[in-house]
Amino acid sequence: MHIYVDADACPVKEEALKVAARHGIPVSYVANSWMRLPEGELVHRVIVAEGADAADDWIAERAVAGDIVVTQDIPLAARCLAAGARVIDKTGKPFTQAGIGMALAMRDLNRHLRETGESRGFNASFTPRDRSRFLEALEQAVQDIRRRGA
Question: Model-level pTM?
Fold first, then answer.
């Protein structure tokens, strides 16, 4: 088991390490540039070449069944789900095979609405409750994988 964190603009880096450390799971923080990250024996800092999808590609090439990926990126989530990994967003919401098609469609629709000026694309603020839900979801994913396998 391995936890991969799409670290660019991820507000739950510390929480991911907290769960990983509790269970002795290695965690890779993948980003396009250097950033301040949690430290520890289980931490792998990965800086990928510049490019729009370089971090996503690095994660997608490695994530397999039994791994957990933390990302907001819906196309990356789809790729990791296809490989059998579990995927959780920053608020603890799991991406699933059943819902990824709709998530991709909504992403495309929202992008179109922003491009045409129909929507300004405001994002909801990240709350302490979101942080708590993320911790609960990541802990549950680890326990599920350990109990049942991927």
Answer: 0.84
Domain region containing 106: 3-148
Tokens of 9: 């603009």
Number of domains in the chain: 1
Residue 145 DSSP label: H
> 107-121 burial, b for 16+ CB within 10 Å, e for fewer?
eeeeeeeeeeeeeee
Residue type for 18, please? K
What's the CATH number where 53 sits? 3.40.50
Scan for tokens 């993320």, then name that residue.
134
DSSP state at residue 51: S
Q: Which residues are paired to 30 by β-bridges?
A: 6, 46
**DSSP, residue by residue, 57-88:** HHHHHH--TT-EEE-S-HHHHHHHHHTT-EEE
pLDDT digits (tens, 9 = 90+) for 23-74: 999 999 999 988 888 788 999 999 998 777 899 999 999 999 999 999 988 8
Please give the backbone phi and psi of residue 117, each rounded to the nearest 5 degrees, phi first.
Answer: 85, 5
pLDDT digits (tens, 9 = 90+) for 96-138: 877 666 666 665 666 666 677 766 656 678 899 999 999 999 9
